[in-house]
């Protein structure tokens, strides 16, 4: 989206960002801690290249119902579909994979290394029975989408109840 004028861009630059409430700040800190537990330790006293070089990867996942399907979406930036696998067992869906580190070419002077590399595996219990033979998964623009059609019995259970 392009700005219309220099005045408009100056006005946007002058608007201060809304301050976070203490609860929002605490929520952000918890979220950051659980995504990257070692990031809150500050600058480490050990050398930059150590056994703690890469942090655990935990992709963000949304699970929701859409029509007669349960949909799982996972953000996997920098990965390809060949790096990810999806498994379904009983009421558990598991996504796993590996984000490979880029090979260094030549001498690079890094100022900051924050991207995470390594293996991950996340399992989720499904809220309803699904037709395992009709599950579809697709990977596009770094987002994995898994569509799990619910069984007829699960659909019947999900009917709304009228209130008298």
Description:
By secondary structure, this protein is of the alpha+beta class. The chain has a domain at 54-102 and 116-159: Immunoglobulin-like (Sandwich). The protein has helices at residues 6-14, 22-35, 152-157, and strands at residues 61-66, 69-75, 84-89, 92-99, 118-125, 136-140, 143-149. The chain has a 4-stranded antiparallel sheet with strand order 1-2-7-6, with no helix packed on it. Strands 3-4-5 form a 3-stranded antiparallel sheet, with no helix packed on it. The longest helix is centred in the N-terminal third of the chain and has 14 residues, at 22-35. The model is unreliable at 44-54 (pLDDT under 50).
